[in-house]
Amino acid sequence: MNQQIILKERPVGVPDKSTWELIETPISDPGEGEILVEQYYISLDPAMRGWLNDAKSYIPPVGIGEVMRSGSAGKVIKSNNPKFKEGDYVYGWGGVQQYSVSDGASFYKVDPSLVSLTVYTGTLGMPGMTAYFGILEVGKIKKGDIVLVSGAAGAVGSVVGQIAKIKGCTVIGIAGGPEKCKYLIDELGFDGAIDYKNESIRDRIKELCPKGIDVYFDNVGGDILDHALAALRMHARVVICGAISQYNNKKAVKGPSNYLSLLVNRATMQGMVVMDYAKDYGKAGMEMGMWMAQGKLKSREDVYEGIENFYDTFLRLFSGQKMGKLILKIGSEQ
Amino acid sequence: MNQQIILKERPVGVPDKSTWELIETPISDPGEGEILVEQYYISLDPAMRGWLNDAKSYIPPVGIGEVMRSGSAGKVIKSNNPKFKEGDYVYGWGGVQQYSVSDGASFYKVDPSLVSLTVYTGTLGMPGMTAYFGILEVGKIKKGDIVLVSGAAGAVGSVVGQIAKIKGCTVIGIAGGPEKCKYLIDELGFDGAIDYKNESIRDRIKELCPKGIDVYFDNVGGDILDHALAALRMHARVVICGAISQYNNKKAVKGPSNYLSLLVNRATMQGMVVMDYAKDYGKAGMEMGMWMAQGKLKSREDVYEGIENFYDTFLRLFSGQKMGKLILKIGSEQ
After folding, report:
1. Which of A134, A220, A305, B72 has its CA 20 to 30 A from that of A29?
2. Taking residues A99-107, what's their average pLDDT?
3. In the predicted model, is pLDDT for residue B1 greater than 70?
4. Do residues B163 and B157 lie in contact, with contact meaning Cβ atoms separated by under 8 Å?
5. Contact between chains at A271 and B276 (C-beta distance less than 8 A)
6. What is the pLDDT of residues B81-133, one digit of tens each?
7. In angstroms, rounded to a whole number, what is the distance separating the alpha carbons of residues B4 and B39?
8. Is residue B108 located within the same domain as residue B164?
9. What is the pLDDT of residues B5-56, one digit of tens each?
10. Environment class of residue A24 by beta-carbon count within 10 Å: exposed (0-12), middle (13-18) or buried (19+)?
11. Which CATH number fits the domain that encloses residue B54?
12. Are A271 and B273 a contacting pair at CB < 8 A?
């Protein structure tokens, strides 16, 4: 049988127990040109919250009764598609279920002898690609820039900061709690860290970035975005990657009151969606893989177990009770 | 004697009668290298409200006791500067006073036989330059773009819309009241107009821009900015030129709740300050002058009289009781 998490009703505010349902269906046989993937790891990402809303966005919402959309890594166990063979390891969009059948278009092959499968859902998957293209193509960092990143201990933010360090920037991260801040500095080599749960963000930005910020990479929105805007330097770039503080709002999103800092500082605020860069994923993957091999880019995954724990694990995205890339392990090789 | 408007105290919210004071001082003699300008026209611009605040911005605030900063047009009546001679007409930063003495660095010569002096404070002055560089360099319009502009009947907005029409765009303007809307369509050739005082901005944007907006040029901020953000097309550009709806706020500026539309639509919001383009004013002036001569670019000035009426006239910027460029006439040739 195939255990699946399906969307049962659209949440208002924080998802609750009635948002999803765990069901069992027979494992489908792959048809002509299709593959059957046994899935081991499910990628849990803030963007998934957005896909629950019945609103126009960059992709359609997940439909009621449909398997919850997610990234996933696993192994092809049956193939009627000449591009895949049994035993191939793959990463793609399999959804939160133990087995997925597809035409293979949304999966690509990965090699777990180079890095573990979990890394393909994180640093070498969508979060890593988001970081890579966001900080390089949208943030347009150059040597000597002062870079501030929020959600800095997360799957995207941790890679953003490390790439900025590789490129010769001064990097300050914002994260929740002393453990994460210590991790940013001691493990990832950030120049400074701000604990937004225990410190004055405004004062600490002034202290750590006395000249202001050239690039702000925003994963969180809300008050932190406003504090960053207040500290922009001339011609600064603000990368809008996400706004996790606002995703469970029941009221309107908090708009950035300090947006006129864009005018005063001739600055730019630009949104991004990683899928636009799909044709360059290969180049980015190769470069990031090499940085990993050289020890310049570290990947950390926080893996919880059991498809029945999907709901509780998902909420860790919003409580911050996780470190690095959040992953749900739902199976393993025999 | 020289009648001058000086800043008496910094306003909180809408400036009131005690914000400025009209004083008389003896007319200064120009020193070595200096010129004495008799000023006929004072440019009244929304940016002047910002210069009253004691806050870090793109230029220092006007000091208490100082002559109120403004653009001005007049005639050189004494010159100890080889670059100017008596009788030269000039436009520059003379402030709200009948006579100004300066080293001439902030004045340039203009020719009232080509267009009237008032045009040099409007369409061929700072507002026109702001429109030109804002819509072309920041908005990056191209033929076929759908352009929305707020404050469309104002000094900047009216030029933005006309330039966009010249460049082959579809142009919708937002203005207050049926008279202004009629002016946009009948006189300036806009494709559509939205009367924000009497119509639903949201519904009318949907009606007039069913495919959405490629470029939004914002002079007003507030709710109108949010409505525009909600209608962005992919890769849209939002030009932040001003936020007149927010300048007299006693509370925090209203941030745009719909800023995540930048993410969904991979759009850019960028601020601008016209002074950055100073080296290209000549080129822009020539091009706009030619458009005026060809009848493609129309200029409208709304001229009120008397330096003693500075306060009441200034408030028209915020009440909207004016059409086109707001000017105060404070003198005339004998």
Report:
1. A305
2. 96
3. yes
4. no
5. no
6. 999 999 999 999 999 999 999 999 999 999 999 999 999 999 999 999 999 99
7. 11
8. no
9. 999 999 999 999 999 999 999 999 999 999 999 999 999 999 999 999 998 8
10. exposed
11. 3.90.180.10
12. no
| A310 domain residue, yes or no | yes
Task: Check whether residue B20 and residue B41 sit in a common domain.
Answer: yes
First-to-last CA distance in chain B?
A: 16
- pLDDT of A333 > 90? The answer is no
> In terms of domains, do B118 and B13 share one?
yes
Nearest-by-CA chain A residue for B252: A257
Between CA B208 and CA B191 the distance in angstroms is: 9
In terms of domains, do B218 and B265 share one?
yes
Number of domains in chain A: 2
pTM, full prediction: 0.91
Q: Are A54 and A66 in contact (CB under 8 A)?
A: no
DSSP string, B275-332: GGGGGGHHHHHHHHHHHHHTTSS---EEEEE-GGGHHHHHHHHHH--S-BEEEEE---
Instruction: Name residue A1's amino acid.
Output: M
Q: The domain spanning residue A149 has which CATH number?
A: 3.40.50.720
Tokens of B123: 């369409």
Residue B80, φ and ψ in degrees, nearest 5: -110, 20
Whether residue A111 is found in the same domain as residue A136: no
Q: Does residue B176 fall inside a structural domain?
A: yes
B232-240 and B213-218 as β-strands: parallel, antiparallel, unpaired?
parallel
Interface contact flag, A264 B257, Cβ < 8 Å: no
**Cβ-Cβ contacts under 8 Å, B260 against chain A:** 221, 240, 243, 246, 253, 271
Tell me the per-residue pLDDT of A82-100, one tens digit each, with 9 for 90 and over. 999 999 999 999 999 999 9
Which residues 271-330 on chain B approach chain A with CB closer than 8 angstroms?
271-273, 276
Looking at this predicted complex, what is its ipTM?
0.88
Same domain, B135 and B98: no
State the pLDDT confidence band at B333, using cuts at 50, 70 and 90. confident
Domain identity same for A155 and A262: yes
Residues of A in contact with B242 (CB under 8 A): 263
In this structure, is residue B290 part of a structural domain?
no
Its domain, for residue A231, covers 126-275
Q: Do B255 and A252 touch (CB under 8 A)?
A: no
